[in-house]
Amino acid sequence: MTLRPLYARLDGAHIEETPFRADDGLRLGLTRVRPGVREDRPAVLLLHGHTASSDMFLLPETRNMVEVLLDDGYEPWLLDWRGSCRLPWNETGRRYTYDDVALYDIPAAVRHIRREIGGRPLFAVAHCIGALSLSMSMAAGLVPGLAGVVAQGVFLTPKLAGRTSLKMTMAGELLRSRFDHIPVDFRKVGFWSRYTPLFALASRGADCPDPTCQILCNSAWGVGASLYVHDNLHDTTHDRLAQLLGPAPLWILPHLRRVALARSMVRWHQNDDRYRALPENALDHADRIDCPVLLISGSENGMWLDSQKLCYQVLTARQPQLDVRYTEIPGYGHLDAFIGRGAALDVFGHILEFLDEHR
Fold this sequence. Notes:
GO molecular function, one term: hydrolase activity
Number of helices: 14
Pfam families: Abhydrolase_1 (PF00561)
Cofactor: FAD
Protein name: Alpha/beta fold hydrolase
Helix content: 25-40%
CATH superfamily of the largest domain: Alpha/Beta hydrolase fold, catalytic domain
Structural class: alpha/beta
Family: Belongs to the GMC oxidoreductase family.
């Protein structure tokens, strides 16, 4: 398997792709970004959302997360876990659940980074399903000793709108018999494909004429949510959304539906001894979280609603010893908190302030 190259352009920095496999042997992507001069910097592990990739932190058309971390004295590490669109596993190859990400992908990446950086601090900045999976890894005690965690969009207490949960259930039961995944690039599937009705449904009431934007911003792969505030995107970012987000596998929906119904990150594999290291319910083991946590969400998060505010309320009530904070970003949705044209001004400062306090 050949990992698709990153779309990054970073002046004066060295991008090092690491041959890397998860603990179950699956080939993943792990990228280290060094400044021009080697320094002993705190490291930051960046975790993307499902069907996205590390490209979301490296947008060349905006001031991106990696550039900001480098300028502030950090060494970014980017994990393309098995849900990355730089990898083929969403469309071909073995199927997986988020249990695999929490048990095999994230802990292996953390161990590898620690072998490379020695005793330097290691932070994690995670988005969406990357943050959900990280919460399960932390609740299982598989990634102890992080210097701090920033979770964007959702963390331990996922909360979907009722219509989104209903459409997710319908998609899981009705569409999975016909499709393995929902694509986002209409140019690849063509007008006469079996996916055309899905794109047609996504276009209903949409303000943007672009089919990829419609199925992402107006529909979120058919579940009726919105992934970003449209006006927050740079024109170049908007035009290459099909590069930044890949097809959504429908066979993952049962686990996602169980998570949404529980309003907690829960284990999918109940009777498989390979997954016994993971708790059945991550929220019940939140006392294993041993580092400060910053919860971030846009005020217009159309995917996970006020999940982060709920998480803050639950954690401060149940785990008063935990250093947990909540920051809401006015005018932002979900994905645009990282890929928005103004994210460096409106969002990244909150992240850096938190990291600098604990470095």
